[in-house]
Amino acid sequence: MEPLHERIYAMVRRISPGKVTTYGRIAELVGGCTARMVGYAMAALKHNAVPDVPWQRVINAQGKISLHGDGFGNAMQRALLEEEGVQFDADGRVDFAVYGWPGPDAPY
User: Fold this and answer.
1) What is the average per-residue pLDDT within 33-45?
2) Dist. CA 33–CA 22, nearest whole Å
3) Is 7 exposed, middle or buried (0-12, 13-18, 19+ CB in 10 A)?
């Protein structure tokens, strides 16, 4: 597995249950990559057995679930987040003020 993907996965593992963050925020925290690269790393989880990465907690900057090629992943991601208590508004957005992950150094 690519070292960059491992760094991304390590950061995503730090997101608390019931919280979300963006592809761009993960890229910023990891450094040396873009939001798109984080998206590619999350998509690669389908093909690599890395079961402990909570990929569902990474969403787009609009607070929405990004479209997945098969469409199935969208419903699964939403269901997983809802199981953690994350709520979506009528437009399918998550309120970052309520559910946003404050980052790896924030006190809990």
Assistant:
1) 93
2) 13
3) middle
pLDDT at 105: 84
Instruction: Write down the pTM of the prediction.
Output: 0.90
Please check whether residue 11 is in contact with residue 29, taking contact to mean a CB–CB distance below 8 angstroms: yes
Angle at alpha carbon of residue 106, lines to 105 and 108, rounded to 5°: 125
DSSP 66: P
Please report where in the chains the tokens 């208590």 appear, as a residue. Answer: 85
What domains can you pick out in the chain, each with its CATH number? 3-99 (1.10.10.10)
pLDDT one-digit tens code per residue, 71-87: 556 888 999 999 999 99
DSSP 21: E
